[in-house]
Design goal:
binds zinc ion, alpha/beta, seven-stranded mixed β-sheet, 35% helix
């Protein structure tokens, strides 16, 4: 395991040293109804994959259609996928016919194998698939290691259908549009929009009471643009990859925050300042307004500034 790989994996969720964020795991895989025929399975554990959470640290969401279930993200392992499958069966007899993988980070697609018996398509973007193929085997080993094997074995099952930006589909009578974040969080991120229901499925592009998740292989300006685009759609329900559901207002707030930090870093970097100097400026300017709105403002604002500096040099 090279250090670059470990950093990449840790950046999946962006929270490296916050053990307080590893909340008590919920082994129930509880299904919550968020709208008619739309459900969420939200992991109570937001942090890194650990032996305690058995690697379950990300959310899945699903839509029950007339002809099958459309599932958005499948968790971090085949065993977790099977738990999600059992949870779905508590609300419908319909099998999972379509899987969307929001992006290539392991906690959003390694559960695909659990649905291989019933799916007709596993869907993602070309760029996300390329990253999955490059890192999939390594990711399985890494997740097994950091969870001390409690995550269980995983067969790699890759997406079979590729999307284009803005592509529209109909799944069992439900209209769906796919929105690319243009690598905002990671290469080839895909969001799913239900235009009639006004529900957005954000994967890790959207956050709730946690800071927006920027990564070293994402594109911050494109993430900011995407957040504004989503806020303008004015969704009534915003579903996220980690943490609870949120609102259009909080998406706009995230965009404003990220935009302020990015602009400050650009200016200061251009003036030859250091990340430490920028951090002082950013904290003085933004902490009074935003500090209490995010559970991880202090550690994350520091990570944001430092990472944005490295992205200026890239
Ligand atoms: Zn991610």
């Amino acid at each position: 395991m090279n250090s670059k790989k470990i950093i990449r994996t840790l950046c999946l969720i962006g929270l490296i040293a916050n053990s307080i964020l590893a909340l008590t795991p919920n082994s129930d895989f509880e299904v919550t109804r968020v709208a008619e025929n739309v459900y969420s399975i939200v992991s109570p554990s937001f942090g890194l994959p650990t032996p305690e959470n058995k690697g379950w640290n990300s959310n899945s969401h699903f839509v029950v259609t007339k002809t099958g279930v459309l599932l958005f993200d499948t968790g971090s392992s085949e065993a977790i996928g099977n738990k999600i499958k059992s949870a779905i069966k508590t609300v419908t007899d319909q099998p999972v016919r379509w899987v969307i993988n929001s992006h290539s980070h392991a906690d959003h697609w390694l559960g695909n194998a659990a649905f291989a018996d019933t799916v007709t398509e596993i869907i993602t973007s070309n760029q996300a698939l390329a990253v999955m193929k490059k890192y999939g085997e390594e990711d399985v080993k890494f997740y097994s290691k950091v969870t001390k094997g409690t995550i269980g074995p995983t067969r790699l099952v890759y997406p079979t259908s590729l999307l284009g930006q803005g592509q529209k589909r109909n799944f069992g009578g439900v209209d769906v549009e796919f929105i690319f974040a243009n690598d905002g969080h990671s290469p080839g991120d895909v969001l799913m929009w239900l235009p009639k229901e006004k529900i957005i499925f954000g994967g890790d592009v959207l956050s709730s009471d946690w800071m927006p998740v920027i990564t070293g292989h994402g594109n911050v300006p494109n993430l900011i643009k995407t957040l504004y685009t989503i806020a303008e759609l004015n969704p009534t329900i915003v579903l996220t990859g980690h943490g609870g559901a949120t609102t259009a207002e909080s998406v706009k707030r995230d965009a404003d925050l990220l935009s302020s930090v990015w602009k400050q870093v650009q200016t200061d970097h251009g003036n030859g300042q250091t990340p430490e100097e920028t951090l002082l400026t950013v904290k003085a300017k933004l902490e009074p307004k935003y500090g209490s709105l995010y559970k991880d403002f202090v550690p994350e604002i520091e990570r944001h500034v430092k990472l944005m500096y490295t992205l200026q040099r890239a």
